[in-house]
Design goal:
Distance between the termini: 17 Å
Radius of gyration: 24 Å
Helix content: 25-40%
Oligomer: single chain
Order of helices and strands: EHEHHEHEHEHEHEHEHEEEEEEHEEEEE
């Protein structure tokens, strides 16, 4: 038996804290199935706390939210696309499209006119993420989205901070680029609409960049990289139980490769959770600049000094995982601990890597 448990009261408290801190409307980002917490359940709790605008990346998620009864809320689809089938789904869902290129603007305009309607859109400015958006020096092309597309009603403009958790200078430079563009639009007599830039880290690291709205996703879960006090609670944990207890002698080994050896007679608890469930699974390293390699090496050295040990909680007590995490189980040292078969085991996992076979339970 295993399940991923999400505490509704903590999620609701986080939402209220975020709205208080922002002081402007909060756009709740529900991409990647609500960051692995379940889009449907997460949206329900957030709506109960007063959230009235959501954002997704997949057009199908906008359709799903509408089918779930979110008919009055605004839904922003944050992925700019020049694919007519995706644009059609955004338009049919009555969602707000993102336009990040002349091609995306042309596609949205044609699809909307073909549907006999005017589609709402937010313009995306690429200030360094390198994914979607007009570059700051493409002002004339960006301006045409507002002025030369009868099938598009532009109701907002935004960018995305890439280093709000770590680099204030870069973040302020991105913010200034967005503000410069919106000021140029205003000078040309154009209402740019809702301006938004701050993400989860931006909300808690800076007080002066909220603009007209903020986009928040990971902060709802209390899991953001910013090294600042947030007042948020980290939510979500994997729950299982001890299914067997045994004692192994000194010198006995654990796991594939026999990489861990018992220094003394050791009492072991077996918990049926492994990396197939998402436990001890992490994103692959994908940057290899000199400073990245140095950071990786230092992190591995810390682990080698015992700071990389993996622990789980059993019956309220920390227990160290022995050897490699298995596909479907872990063995834990519970020597001297008050642990019994059937006791609850709590494991920390990244819900984005949680197996779809593990049920989610909001409590």
């Amino acid at each position: 038996m295993k399940k991923f448990v999400i505490e509704k009261d903590k999620l609701a408290a986080n939402s209220r804290r975020i709205q208080e801190k922002a002081g402007v409307p909060v756009i709740a980002v529900l991409k990647a199935d609500g960051y692995g917490f379940g889009m449907e359940q997460m949206a329900k709790v957030l709506r109960e706390t007063g959230i009235r605008m959501f954002a997704v990346t997949e057009p199908g998620d906008a359709t799903r939210l509408r089918e779930l009864g979110y008919t009055e809320e605004d839904i922003l689809v944050m992925r700019s696309t020049a694919m007519a089938d995706e644009v059609y789904e955004v338009v049919q869902a009555g969602a707000i499209a993102t336009v990040g290129s002349p091609e995306a603007a042309y596609c949205l305009n044609e699809v909307a006119k073909g549907c006999g309607m005017q589609a709402r859109a937010h313009v995306k400015l690429d200030t360094g993420m390198g994914r979607y958006g007009f570059l700051p020096d493409q002002y004339e092309e960006l301006k045409l989205v507002y002025t030369a597309n009868e099938g598009i009603q532009v109701t907002g403009i935004y960018t995305h901070f890439h280093s709000a958790f770590a680099n204030e200078a870069a973040t302020r430079a991105q913010y200034k680029q967005l503000c410069d563009i919106t000021q140029r639009l205003k000078a040309d007599g154009i209402d740019c609409g809702m301006r938004h830039a701050a993400n989860s880290s931006g909300v808690f690291c800076y007080d002066d960049m909220m603009l007209d709205a903020v986009r928040v996703g990971s902060a709802f879960t209390g899991r953001i990289p910013a090294k600042t006090s947030t007042g948020l609670s980290r939510i979500g944990y994997l729950e299982s139980r001890v299914i067997e207890l045994r004692t192994v002698p000194k010198g006995h080994t654990f796991g594939y490769g026999a990489g861990c050896v018992a220094k003394d007679a050791t009492r072991v608890a077996v918990v049926p959770v492994g990396y197939t469930d998402g436990f001890s699974v992490e994103k692959k390293k994908d940057l290899y600049r000199s400073r990245d390699i140095l950071r990786y090496v230092l992190a591995e050295l810390k682990k080698g000094r015992g700071k990389g040990n993996i622990y789980i909680t059993i019956n309220g007590q920390r227990a160290r995982v022995m050897g490699h995490v298995g596909l479907c189980h872990v063995s834990c040292d519970v020597t001297g601990l008050d642990v019994h078969n059937g006791d609850t085991a709590i494991l920390d996992v990244n819900p984005l890597y949680l197996s779809p076979l593990v049920p989610k339970e909001y409590v």
